[in-house]
């Protein structure tokens, strides 16, 4: 470093104000991205060469050393004069590979253009570089275009420049919108955290649990409400044969909203050695409905299949109604099995004088704790000796906590990776009655208030006024204008996204809202932030999406602690519209190789089904990968897409099929970059076959459905037009719901167009109408007076057809 530090120090002032914050919220106008198409990171080992990026950037120590070596190799070709004149420039240009905006500077955001060999420069800086150091260009780049332009200052700098001066080097270093709080979670003007998703599994029937076996294989197991559990390998391929199939025993139905079914799954902490797992499901015994907790063993012949003959019923509880069935099973840090039951159903817990939840002699409306170790002989479970009511007359000894209405999804906090702070806490979402949803932390012997209280407010005023209630209040509660059925989540403790550490992420089944809580360590209070899907360029990374199906059923952790959730487009136990999503923070990742793990081998005896993603990024249309542009220029495709839409006609149009989205952000796109010497027609993005638009009404959420197939727009006949078909169209247009499937040309006849689709029949999971069954493109036995339409919306109201 002594050979160059004297000359490069003067350039470090550009980054003197760049401070890294462990967790902070940054404006949503950024798209930091590295040359490997991933977010920047904080290096594990401090950089020695490109030290302006030691807090946050795209280089680890190894890459930093490579750049240092390259710097010395280049500088060895120059005399003292060349060294003193150009050391700083060479240093600057090499180190931009470490910039948090390296992908932008080197044109790597656009997969259809080759990566630059010299970062995009502001014109004034380029002129200075050329005047002093043009002779160094062959040592920096082998680009033949740059070699041809080397002798011409104007041509060279024109070739190297980025038109938008806010984003060229070195001006982007002084752009406060880009450098302020760089590396923090991005947040919009409403305080909504901007995150992204990665699709992990799809085609599932109401996936309501995803668990791992903690056996080193990094498999994950997804349970469906109908009674099937599927095995997924670390590469996300699915085994063709189910891990568990108890569909014949499970009580459920295809009715939307049926709460009965297979509800919970937990692997024993020593599953790797004893092969034991536990399930929670609804059954019918005679005319009675019950919840059943059973123990199974994995097959001795196949590690990916349960021995179905090994079932032992640990516990059965009568259910007086078909709702409020609870369903969570988990093993906490103490090694005991926790069972979370509902209050028995109906409304207001009307059972007995005080309801089931306040009655410690009933097992409903409770958190139960039992010991299932060493149960091969003797009782199937034992009572832990420190259970709180073991000596209370009339109380069931299994009760660990009470006053619970219907806790849906609980989790154990792994604790801070370094300090272990928070380790062992049990978080639960408790579904409310008609006013509030709540998040609780479960503690031994505590009363969680129901039916005396709902959230922080009184529900049963007489019980609420009882001085002996001694209930514990939620850590957070929200009103029904925000959502009507909480889905408990997890405190993020994974490795890949350090900014999320300590944030509790949860959701709401009905509203589709994703939410977060973060504890203030000094006051113990919890700060709320909504979570929105990043729009503009926020999620423009390979494989990421920014939308999900509305009905958030459950959350999950994988074996390494990364966070997932499951949702569906149609809340029916038999609808194959369920998807598993991984939660991604696009603002910062862990350093390369920090989160590496080696899964133990899995012996597979079943066929594998390769994972094929179905979801797409919405709100942004990436350049056509088949388009071959000039070598280093880019273009303002956001504006051109808008222009092109104006040319092809009015109405809502989607060039790329999409699914329903969560709350999104406004004005979150970065300023575009220009491509020169291209006509608008040549530059306009191609409309993808299967795109749809709505016409015939001035409102953007309704109209006649027109579809683009093989270069032409056409209409759809309504012979078999249903609300399920309409849902496919509305999700493709970015709406959460289809409110009506309009028939008989309610929005006018498209007489100027051909009828392209007839007899369309969708199941609800398709990404476009072309994926549904139909009579064939252009084949029909109908007329335009039967043209189909839709009314879409984002409310939960659904119109009957």
TrEMBL record:
Domain SRCR: 692-793
SMART domains: SR (SM00202)
Disulfide bond annotation, renumbered to this chain: 762-772
Superkingdom of the organism of origin: Eukaryota
Bias-annotated ranges (Basic residues): 666-678
Record protein name field: HHIP like 1
Entry-linked PANTHER family: HEDGEHOG-INTERACTING PROTEIN, HHIP-LIKE PROTEIN 1
Cell location: Secreted
Cleavable signal peptide: none
GO CC annotation terms, alphabetical: extracellular region; membrane
Pfam family, one: Folate_rec
